[in-house]
Write a sequence for this structure.
């Protein structure tokens, strides 16, 4: 098709051009990828058509064209261009007092909200709410679903607000059988679970359902978004190797599909995760590639890319380079303070490595004040390390145990090695040297299980703690205690670290009345171990095990190990 020009009959030509692209805009359009490719080839003509509409005050047609091209904007990383089309056309309508049909305006505002959410622009809720109000007034269920999705993605960093929009949108989409909208909303919901909730369980649940639907109907873009969320859940749950494989595949697939959005996001995540494996060179390569990929995706996505670079640098021990990258990230993200909830810039670690404990503590405090879920757990670990450096033992203990409790609640096992090392340092400071050595052993095993290495900026403090324990215990006793810790499973290590910590007020009887120590004994009884073997596993005496069992029998109203095993199976 030749480039459109200014001549009589152009309106008819550009109308025909829009009409031929309408299949981009219908649910389950056959050969959608082929039509998106054709639209990309015709972009010069489409831009000319859009310009003609504006010049001739055909604003409704301009907005309709921008909405029809929504699949192109999202899947080809042309988010900024799509947003710009909506911005100028809506501005034209306001400037020239053009009356735009309500369905066209509602659709345009909803699509604009979705594009802005994809660019991490979350400060324009008014237009998204207008789209929703108009859609409800028109009483168009499909348009209501789209507007709800726009509101939800704009509110993604506020879990409670986003959740209400997504719940309604999902209910409507399921009712009308709109799988195309359903899988996209599930992708948005999974994203909100990652960002606004820090909840790997919710992210995985929404992500897996959305991925399955997207794969079934051929929506590769939504599928990649869902798998990005699943990959983060894998990482948080301790499957670093699996998560890295997921993101490498996403980068390659996104590149093939010309999907700049998820290519950039996957490179950002890959940069973070490779840093945690200790492959800081590969982490820097991924982070730098993310910075380049984010060039046309807006300042906020650029900020996340620079944050990944800062993490790669601090993991390698290059504090100055990390500080520069962290500052670049902060300058791009600080305009929207709500983005701080995801706690991606290693500001506390940078300040700690620079010896500025006051700034490190302030950064950690600020993160904890707003971060939810897993993001808060990670922030607590960071503040525990800062508090240890400040010799604020009580704060460090509260934060370390708070992080441990959060890790259990959210299945965020990726933080366990660092938590165990913090608790080991605190135990050594309290004179519990054998406990400290066991906790160091448990941390070592967790690092081997998860693949997470210690950042180089923490090596000096760790080496000093190990040397002090060797001196206090002697080599033989130190190695014996550490080996005992290394032999613990993840569940056993958690139970050992939590001994004596009553996190909540318990009832006097029933399963909920059992303490962590008692539950650990019950678990081992259910595995068929006798008291002597249980005592050896828990580093206590057989008499202590029997005392725990007596308390358990009394609280549960039972009298035998068989009954106890049956009760435990009901609560497994």
């Amino acid at each position: 098709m030749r480039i459109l020009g200014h001549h009589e009959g152009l309106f008819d030509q550009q109308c025909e051009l829009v009409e031929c692209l309408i299949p981009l805009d219908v649910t389950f359009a056959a050969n959608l990828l082929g039509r998106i490719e054709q639209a990309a080839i015709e972009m010069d003509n489409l831009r000319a058509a859009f310009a003609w509409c504006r010049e001739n005050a055909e604003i409704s047609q301009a907005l309709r064209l921008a909405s029809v091209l929504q699949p192109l904007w999202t899947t080809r990383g042309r988010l900024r261009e799509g947003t710009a089309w909506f911005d100028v056309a809506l501005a034209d309508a306001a400037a020239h007092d053009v009356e735009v049909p309500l369905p066209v305006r509602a659709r345009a505002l909803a699509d604009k909200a979705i594009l802005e959410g994809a660019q991490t622009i979350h400060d324009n809720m008014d237009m998204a709410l207008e789209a929703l109000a108009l859609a409800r007034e028109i009483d168009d269920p499909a348009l209501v679903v789209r507007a709800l999705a726009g509101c939800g993605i704009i509110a993604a960093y506020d879990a409670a607000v986003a959740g209400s929009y997504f719940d309604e949108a999902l209910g409507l989409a399921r009712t009308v059988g709109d799988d195309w909208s359903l899988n996209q909303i599930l992708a948005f919901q999974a994203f909100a679970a990652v960002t606004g909730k820090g909840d790997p369980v919710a992210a995985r649940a929404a992500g897996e359902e959305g991925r399955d639907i997207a794969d079934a109907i051929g929506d590769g873009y939504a599928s990649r978004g869902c798998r990005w969320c699943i990959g983060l859940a894998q990482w948080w749950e301790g499957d670093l190797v699996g998560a890295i494989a997921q993101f490498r595949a996403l980068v390659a697939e996104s590149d093939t599909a010309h999907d700049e959005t998820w290519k950039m996001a996957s490179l950002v995540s890959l940069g973070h995760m490779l840093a945690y494996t200790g492959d800081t060179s590969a982490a820097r390569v991924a982070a730098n590639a993310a910075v380049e990929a984010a060039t046309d995706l807006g300042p906020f996505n650029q900020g996340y890319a620079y944050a990944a670079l800062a993490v790669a640098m601090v993991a390698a021990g290059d504090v100055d380079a990390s500080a520069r990258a962290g500052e670049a990230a902060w300058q791009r993200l600080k305009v929207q303070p709500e983005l701080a909830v995801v706690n991606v810039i290693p500001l506390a670690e940078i300040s700690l490595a620079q010896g500025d404990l006051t700034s490190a503590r302030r950064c950690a405090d600020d993160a904890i004040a707003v971060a939810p879920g897993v993001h808060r757990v990670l922030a607590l670990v960071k503040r525990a390390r800062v508090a240890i450096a400040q010799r604020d033992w009580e704060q460090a203990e509260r934060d370390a145990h708070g992080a441990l409790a959060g890790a259990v609640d959210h299945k965020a096992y990726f933080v366990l090695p660092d938590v165990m090392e913090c608790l080991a340092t605190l135990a050594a400071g309290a004179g519990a040297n054998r406990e400290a050595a066991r906790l160091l052993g448990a941390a070592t095993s967790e690092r081997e299980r998860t693949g997470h290495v210690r950042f180089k900026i923490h090596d000096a403090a760790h080496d000093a703690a190990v040397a002090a324990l060797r001196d206090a215990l002697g080599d033989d006793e130190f190695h014996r205690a550490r080996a005992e810790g290394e032999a613990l499973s993840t569940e056993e290590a958690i139970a050992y670290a939590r001994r004596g910590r009553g996190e909540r007020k318990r009832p006097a009887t029933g399963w909920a009345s059992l303490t962590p120590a008692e539950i650990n004994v019950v678990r081992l009884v259910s595995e068929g171990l006798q008291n002597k073997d249980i005592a050896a596993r828990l580093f206590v005496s057989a008499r202590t095990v029997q005392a725990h069992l007596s308390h358990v029998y009394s609280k549960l109203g039972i009298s035998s190990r068989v009954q106890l095993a049956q009760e435990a199976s009901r609560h497994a």
Remarks:
- Residues 361 and 386 are 6 Å apart (CA to CA).
- The longest helix spans residues 179-197.
